[in-house]
Write a structure and sequence with these properties.
The structure is a homodimer. Chain A is of the alpha/beta class. Chain A is built from ten helices and twelve strands. Chain A binds a DNA duplex through α2 and α3.
Chain lengths: ~325, ~325
DNA sequence: CTGAAAGCGCTTACAG
DNA sequence: CTGAAAGCGCTTACAG
């Protein structure tokens, strides 16, 4: 049984006002408080062929990353007068129902590989407004992308470890398979090694999955295997937590025995001990910009095909810098 | 200009199949892949008078609290086959548009005072399915509530400080005005004082707003004013971060000079230094349960009018207990 | 089990 | 500026 109240319709308003419903429809913006009239969104959508809703597809709402992104998206969506419909997928495999799409939104924001490629292509083919975050589209697709300077960031991080702290055996923890952020970060890692004359050792690349538990497990394994290393680039900040745990458990001191650096600069990074050296990614701004580009598309305007956001090195203590050199 | 593709409708499917649209409608659940047919949600909603969507109204998506709640809500909503529409309000004052309501959802989940009381009453009067989280409804409203043992939790926390660590001048930082969680926590704080024969000092109650910055500011003020205290119950974990900062800046050691305890046990609490003693609230489960109760309402079934979730003391280091006594 | 038809509550050309 | 009317794409009694 479902809600079935007899609240007023546009016809009631028209009758009371002694005008036609067309007239009411035209002035509907000035909320008709008399009858507590709230226009049915469904009827509007059906008649106008627009939903006034933006959809967000995201894969992992668990970590510390999501609130930042959502904050930006929420704010910008609202100020543009749209509703926000959110769906979080566990993985990017085909679903029976399409939770978000052309049937219930005007456009979609898609975060990294949270939508299977076929669906992405289908939406693109029917010219459905789409903006990708942290993921470049397949060649034939001309979809705006908002992403960050992953490679630069990683390079800064690793170069800092090499130059300031003389580390040479640096572990890289990869993110989830196919995750573009991770691929670019690895590239930055490799280029930093190369430009400092350190040869790449595939034995130092392990899986961290941008996930605390997985990072913990991989770190333990590395330790068990007796692999030598003097630094860890954990891929992201969530994974750094797992690295900390494993190192502390093995009585390796951070940063003296092993320097650790993350990526993202989420809320907790400055508060863990030692404070985490990481890359600040303007995540909230990524969200805002994604919405802005989508609105352009919705308005039939041109959108920027690539927006690349700057990243910034945030030096704290986990790399080996001392607290005194560092801003509070 | 808006998206206006000519994708197939139910009529196309009916024609191709050589049956009536009524027949198609009946078997529509077996997704008609032939024409890539995706039923228009708006038309369905309009005709069936149900949206298949649950709305979530929340006030602060900034903190570390939201991801936990959302995770539970997301999971349960999806497994029940509903969509989730989210709106976050800055404050609970009247809005011109009603972002979420009977016009676009089948039922609403409302988190603490994120919806103005008039709107709450209006929805209740038209018998619209509603579940409140962390907020008891006005007397005349019979709306299911999911909340946690705030008072018990606070009492455990404060009693611990008094009994194990001999603290007697304990600051309490209030949450936002009218926030029920905060009111109950304050009550627990007072009862713990009382049962240990410590008289209540209103000078030790300050505003923390469940917010890092506000907590930081209040703590600084307390320090500037030269108020004496040997412990702080910060109201929640986010505020504890601000307290840490202010104390460290003033060179007061935690926990030796000042013990600090929080509430919620969010992700970062175990990782900050010193690790935060706090109350574990089953936030994800609050979200799940709220959805379950709402589904009952949607099905015309009886719902539990009050669900009170247990809280649990999590002892770490910031209260003065030593790491050795504590689980890793 | 199936089809014809009314109806959900709006918007929007179109005519006046 | 206003009204009559068609139409948005479905669902659901109702009749057969």
């Amino acid at each position: 049984m479902i809600h079935r109240n007899r609240s007023s319709t546009i016809a009631d308003v028209a009758r009371l006002a002694g005008v036609s419903i067309a007239t009411v429809s035209r002035v509907i913006k000035d909320a008709i408080s008399e009858l507590k009239f709230v226009p049915r969104a469904a009827a509007r959508t059906l008649a106008s062929r627009r939903t006034n809703t933006i959809g967000l597809i995201f894969s992992e709402i668990g970590g510390a990353f999501f609130p930042l992104l959502l904050k930006g998206i929420e704010a910008e969506t609202r100020s543009a007068g749209y509703e926000l419909l959110i769906h979080s997928t566990q993985a990017a495999h085909a679903q029976k129902r399409r939770p978000l799409g052309e049937h219930n939104t005007d456009g979609l924001l898609v975060f990294t590989s949270s939508l299977e490629i076929e669906e992405l292509c289908r939406l693109s083919q029917i010219n459905f407004p789409l903006v990708l975050m942290h993921q470049t589209p397949p060649d034939e697709m001309n979809t705006p992308v908002i992403t960050i300077e992953n490679k630069d960031g990683a390079e800064m991080l690793v170069s800092h470890l090499i130059e300031k702290h003389a580390r040479r055996r640096i572990v890289y923890m990869q993110g989830p398979e196919g995750h573009e952020d991770s691929q670019w970060r690895e590239r930055g890692y490799r280029e930093a090694l190369e430009s400092h004359g350190i040869s790449f050792d595939p034995g130092l690349v392990v899986s961290g999955e941008f996930d605390e538990e997985q990072a913990f497990a991989s770190m333990r394994q590395l330790l068990l295997d007796g692999i030598e290393f003097d630094a860890v680039f954990s891929g992201d900040d969530d994974a750094a937590i797992g690295v900390y745990r494993a190192l502390k458990m093995a009585n390796r001191s951070i940063p003296d025995d092993v320097a650790v650096v993350g990526f993202d600069d989420v809320q907790f990074s400055r508060y863990i001990s030692p404070a985490l050296t990481t890359i600040r990614a303007p995540i909230e701004e990524v969200g805002r910009e994604a919405v802005r580009q989508l609105i352009h598309l919705l308005n039939g305007e041109q959108a920027q095909s690539l927006t690349l956001m700057r990243t910034e090195l945030v030096i704290r203590e986990s790399c080996g810098c001392s607290p005194k050199e560092v801003n509070p």
